[in-house]
Structures
1.
Amino acid sequence: MKLVHRPLAWQRHGGAPYLSYTHGTFPRAVDALLVDGPPHWTRRGREACLYQAMPSLKVGARIFLDDYRRAAEQRTARNWLDAYPSALRLVAVIEEGDHVAVLEKTAEAMSPRHTLSRRADAHLQAALQPLTSRVRRAATRLRGR
C-alpha cells in the first residue's frame, strides 16, 4: 500500500482559481481517495480533487468525502454525481462526527460533464478572487504583527 499526500496549492479548474490538492502523478490504479482539507479557504478545491484523480481510480475504488454534514460538501458530492452520472454512485454516509460520504467508482469515466452550477460557481469565484486575495494578504499581515 502506498499513501500519496497532496498538500494544498493555488491552481485553476473550470476557469476559476481554487486552493486544491497539488498536481502530480498518481499511481496507475488507486483503490481509495480521502478528500479532506479546510473547506472555507478551498472553495471548490475539494471538488477539484476528484476531477484530478478520477482517471487513476480503479473501478470499485471508494471516495471518502469528509465533513459531509456541511451543505458545501453535500453540493460537492452532487456535482461529482452530476459530472459522472454513469460512473459514480453514493454508497453510504457514515454519521460519525461531521459525517463522511462514501462514493464508489462504478465504471470507467470520460471527462467530467460540466454542470451549469459548476460553471456558474467558477465565474463567481473568478469575480471574487481579487477581493479574497486582498483579504488573505491583509490577514497575513495582521497575523505577522
2.
Amino acid sequence: MCERLGVPDVVYDRSCEIFRDIHAVGIKGRKPSAVNAACIFIACRQEKIPRTFKEITPVAQDTNKVEIWRVFNAIKDKLKISQAKLGVISTTSFVERWSSTLKLGPEAKKAAKEIATIACPNASHSRKWDTRSHISVTAAALLLTVRAGGEDLNPAEVARRTGVAVGTIKDVYEELRAEAVSLVPGWFVEPAELQRRLGLSGAPGSAAG
C-alpha cells in the first residue's frame, strides 16, 4: 500500500510500528485493509508527509474512506495519540505536490504557497472560509492562483488531482476570489490586472455582481 501511495520508507517503517502497537492493545471488528490504511494515514501525518483520506482510500482494498476514518479515530483513542503527535497539517506540502500534478510553473507554485499560507483557516479571523478544512482551502487556492495568472483551469481537474469535491472547490474559490486582492501577491499580478482577470470590480476585495 505504501508503494502504491508513493511514500518513502520512513512512512512504511512508522506505519508498521503503529500496526504492531495497535494489535498489542487490541482492535476488534475492523477490516484489516482499513486498519492498514489508517496506520499509514497516521504515519504520514507524523512524518510530515500528509496524505488525505481520499488519497489513501484507492490504494486500500475492500474498504472505504468512512471506515478508514473510523479506524483512524479508534487507533488514535486506543494509543492515546494526541493532536500534537499528529502534527499540524502543512498547506505547503500539499501545494508542492498538487502544483506538480497540475503542472504549475515555478512562479505560480511560489504564488500558490503564499496564497494558501495567507488563506489558511485561522480561528482568530472571521473570514467566510475559516470554517473550511485546510485541504479544501489549499485546493481552492490552487484554482485561484491559476486563474489569477491569466489561465483557465476547470474545478473538476483540481478535484481529480486533489480529491476535494468539485462543489467544495467552487464554493471556497468564490470565497477566496472575493478577497483576492488581499491574498494574491502583487509580484505575481498587479491588483488592477488581477481584478480584470477575476472579474472583480469596485473596491479591492469585492466581487462583481
3.
Amino acid sequence: MHATLPLLIDTVFPPIRRRKLTTLQANLGYKCNQSCLHCHVNAGPKRKEVMHKETINHILEILGHTSATTLDLTGGAPELNPQFRYLVSNAKQLGAHIIDRCNLTILSEPGQEGLSEFLAQHQVEVVASMPCYLKENVNAQRGDGVFHRSIDGLQQLNTLGYGIEGSGLTLNLVYNPQGPSLPPLQSILEQDYKKHLQDNYGIQFNQLLTITNMPIQRFGSTLVSRGEFEDYMQLLKSSHDEGNIDAVMCRDLISIDWQGYVYDCDFNQMLALPMHMNSKPRTPIIVSLPS
C-alpha cells in the first residue's frame, strides 16, 4: 500500500483551531464485515485490532471528568467489538448522547441479532453509511448484495421509529463519492435521497450528510497507483470554502484508537499523528485529555 503522509505534509491548508471539547470519538476496532474502496480506515473482515474492556472502562471514566457529552462510536464496524453493548449501556447510564456509525449490513450479520432493538432501546443516534440510493452504485462500491441488505436495515430501523418525525430516534444517512470527485450540494442530494427511498422502499430518515473522501489509507493508495493523487489534491484546494471551517467536526472532538491513544481527529489517527507528537511519542487516554 502506498503511503500518502509524505505527500500530504507538503500540502498547505488553512489552520484549524480547536474549540471546547464536546465529543469523544472512539474507534472500537478495525474489523468490519465490508471492505470498501473509499475506506480511510482500511477496515475489513481480516483485521484483528479490537479495543479491550480495560480501555473501554477508561472511556466511561473520562465521560464523567471532561466537558464531553457525546460518545461517537466508529470502526471498522463498531458493533463487532464484543464490548459494544456494554459500552453503550454504561455510557447511557452516565447521560451521554451516543452515536453509532453503522454500515447497515451489520444489522443482518450473524451474531448481531437484536442489535437494532438494542440501539432503539438506548436511544442511540444512528449515522448510517449509504453511498447512493441506486443498487448498481452501492454494490459497485461495497460488494454484491450490500444494497438490498442496506435497504432491509433501513426498513428495520424505520419499523422501530428511527427517522420518523416525533419518535426521538435519529437516523441520518451518509453519502460519499465513489471516486476522486466532490459530493453534490448536500441539500439538493438530500431531496433526491428522500424522494427515491420513500417512493421505492417506503424509507424515511432525518438528514443526509455528504462527506469528501480523504486521500489516505486504501483510497489514497489507489489514487497514487492510478496517478490521480495530485489532481485530487488540487481539486480539494481549488474547492476550499472558508465558510465550511466552522462546521469541521474535529474542532470539538478527540479521536481515541483501539489501543486508547488520543488524536486530534479520526484522520490523524489513520495517519499515525497523535496529539502532542512534538513532545510525547504517543498520549494514552489515561494520561491526559483536553478539558
4.
Amino acid sequence: MAQIKTALLAYGMSGKVFHAPFVAAHEGFELYGVLERHTKTADQDYPGIKSFDTIDALLADTDIELVIVNTPNNLHFEQAKAVLTAGKHALVEKPITSRPDELESLFELADQAGKQILFYQNRRWDSDYQSLEDVIKSQDLGPIHEAHFRFDRYNLQLSPKKFKETPIDASGIQYDLIPHVLDQAIALFGVPDRFYKRLLQLRPESQVDDFCSIQLSYLNGPEVYVVASLVTAKLPYAFKVYGRNGCFEKMRSDVQEDQLKAGVKPTDSCYGHAPEALAGLYTNVGRNGAVTTPVTEKSSNYLALFEAVYQTLRQGAAYPVTREQILAQINILASPAS
C-alpha cells in the first residue's frame, strides 16, 4: 500500500522534535514537504524534502495526503480549515481551536470533504501516563475517589515566543500545558459532569495566565484535579490517584522529549526507556497495614501515535483520541474561570 505523503506547516522545535523524526521513521509515511517561509533548514536534516514558501503552494500540491498543523495556537483553526478545504487529512496539535463552535465546524467540514481530522495529543503515549493507565485498568486500587494530574515547570522569565505571552486567542497556560493533562484525565475518566476552573497570573509582568487549576467532578466517580503551573519551585508528583485499596504516585519521568532534543532517534535501542529511579509507587493497604512497592515503568514511543494515524487513514480504524473527548476539552477551556 502506498505511503502517506505528509507535510508539516512549520519546522521549528515542534516540527524538528515531535513530528519529522516519526514521520520519517514510520514505513507507512513519506516525509514529503514542509512550509518554510524564511530560513530553509529542513533539507539539511532530510535531504530531498520539498520546501514550500507559502501555505497556498503547499496545499495546492496534489501529492500531499496528510498535513500536520504544528503552528502557533492561534493559527490552528484557520489552517486546519484550509487543509480540509484543500481535500487533505489534518493532524492538528493541541489546542485544535479555542471555541467549541469552531471545532464543530471543522468536524462538519471534514465529514463533507470525506477527510479525517485527527488530534495530536502525544502525552497519551508518555511512559509515565501509560504506567498510570495500566495501574488504573488493573483495578488494584479499588474504586477511585480522588486523582491529581499535574504538569509543572519553574520559569519566571517570559517566553521569547511572543504568541505565548500576548493575550491573543488560545494563549496562556490553559491552552499550552493544561491540554496535556486535561486530555489524560478525560481519556481515563470520561467527560466530567461538572467542573470548576481558576486562572492566575503569577510571573512578574505576565499578561497571560501561568497557573491553571481545574476540578473535574463525576457524579458516580472521582474528584479529579488538573493543574498546570510555571511557578512550581519544587516539582511534585505528576500523578496521584487514591482508591479504596490504596494509592499510586508517579513522578513525571518520560524521557522522549529530552532524547529527541539531544538527537536520539525513535528507532534507537535506547529510546523511550524511563529511569528506574523514577518508578511509580503503589501503596496497598491490607490486613498487615500499608505496603509500598515500585511499579516498573514500560518504555514508550510516540511512533505509536503515528501508527494510530496510519491505521485510521489506511485501515479505517477508530482513532484513540475521539471527537467527543476533544470537544469536552475545548468546552472546558473556553468556559470562563470561576
